[in-house]
Amino acid sequence: MCARPQLPDRRGNLIGQVIVLRNITTLKHAQAELLQQQRAVAMLQERERLARELHDSVGQVLGYVNVQAQTIRAFLSGGKNDDADAQLLRLVHVVQEAQTDVRAYIFGAKTELAPGQGLISALRQYLARFSQNYGIPTALDAPDEAQLFSPVVEAHLFRIIQEALNNVRKHMPARNWRGSV
Predict the structure, then answer these.
(1) CA angle 28-29-30, nearest 5°?
(2) Of 1, 51, 94, 124, which sits most exposed with the smallest number of CB within 10 A?
(3) 158-177: per-residue pLDDT in tens?
(4) d(CA 109, CA 59)
(5) Rounded distance between C-alpha atoms, residue 79 and residue 81, angstroms
(6) pTM score > 0.70 for this model?
């Protein structure tokens, strides 16, 4: 049997806390490292998501603008000014929508789930800015700040809520939004 180091208490009785303290310290350190790694993974996934969204939205709009601009040139060179004007009006509308979408992406990127910032805090910050920017009142019923989920799950939840609010802004004549966590 191997003797384990022990510390004496106030009365001189030996107690076996040295190994337990070391194991708890090692466990806390490992948990902190895991949390840091999860946050790094969440950040990389967020960057990939943003790149996909920009490619899918802005990339498609630019392709559409290019095709429509060529069509308008053809109409103008053929003397079809009314057709060219109708196409230009549609093109202006599409570009305005794309500009609004890009602003929404930038707004969403400015309100990120920063390392060390909890989901609830980030949501409250985002909702306040969303209400201010779009005039849609929002409310959040949530517990006090706590680590509710892993950082990866929190990042996904944050983006799901952002996308839901973005859809409200785009597709509904919404008057307010209320969410619960």
Answers:
(1) 90
(2) 1
(3) 888 888 888 888 776 655 55
(4) 18
(5) 6
(6) no
- Check if the beta carbon of residue 158 is closer than 8 Å to that of residue 118: no
Alpha helices for the chain (secondary structure H) = 18-54, 60-77, 81-110, 119-134, 151-171
29 token code pair: 């350190």
Residue 143 has φ and ψ, to the nearest 5°, of -70, 170
- Give the C-alpha separation, 62 to 131, whole Å: 29
pLDDT tens readout for residues 90-122? 999 888 888 877 777 777 666 666 666 778 888
Alpha helices in 78-149 (DSSP H): 81-110, 119-134
Dig out the tokens for 141 from the structure: 């019923």
Q: How far apart are the first and last CA of the chain?
A: 52
Contact 87, 68 (CB under 8 A): yes
Rounded CA-CA distance 148/181 in Å is 9
123 DSSP β-pair partners:
none
Confidence class for position 1, pLDDT limits 50, 70, 90: low
What's the maximum distance between 2 C-alpha atoms anywhere in the chain? 104
User: Burial letters for 27-42: b for 16+ Cβ neighbours within 10 Å, e otherwise?
Assistant: eeeeeeeeeeebbeeb
